Amino acid sequence: MLGLLGYVLFGAGYLVMLGIEFDAAYVLPSLADSAPAYVDDITPAAQPVPGPTSSQPDPVGAR
To answer: What is the rounded CA–CA span in Å between residue 27 and residue 21?
Structure first.
């Protein structure tokens, strides 16, 4: 039962991400002229959030 719950939550998370990316890719460009304030408020949701790994130095050979 716990595995099913994890599977459902994992799938729901992917559906939320899909909705945000669809909104950013297809809906917001068409609204940019008519509702720029809405687009400015929603756009940060589709941007990556810097996390603890973003402050880590590059591994050797990654440059």
So the answer is: 10
pLDDT tier, 55 (very low <50, low <70, confident <90, very high otherwise): low
Residue 59 main-chain phi, psi, to 5 deg? -65, 160
Question: Domain residue spans in the chain?
Answer: 2-46
Segment 1-46, tens digit of pLDDT: 889 999 999 999 999 989 888 887 888 888 888 988 888 887 776 6
Distance set, CA 55 to CA 17, 29, 50, 58, 61 (Å): 24, 31, 8, 9, 17
**Contact at 8 Å (CB) between 24 and 46?**
yes
